[in-house]
Amino acid sequence: MGKKRIGGIFFLSVFLLVGLLAGGCGEDLKAANEKLKKEVADLTAENDRLKSDTTRLRTELSAVHSQVAELNMKVSTLQEENHNLQKEMETLKKRRR
Length: 97
Description:
Helices cover 97% and strands 0% of the residues. The chain is mainly α.
């Protein structure tokens, strides 16, 4: 065999070896890529769920704020009525004396 032929066989062997190694790495990369794609899909779904929950909770919070404001107005009205009734009682007591 000539040196050219041995060199060609050597080159072909190295090329095939690199191809086999790269092919094996390619499968690992594909598997890792698929795993990452699934994780991204899961995280995206969780993110969408959390956004939905946040929107729902903001709506509920807004309703609670409205209820608190309404209750504060009622408390204020009741305090004013109480004050007026106390004044009226004092007036009646003074008349009674």
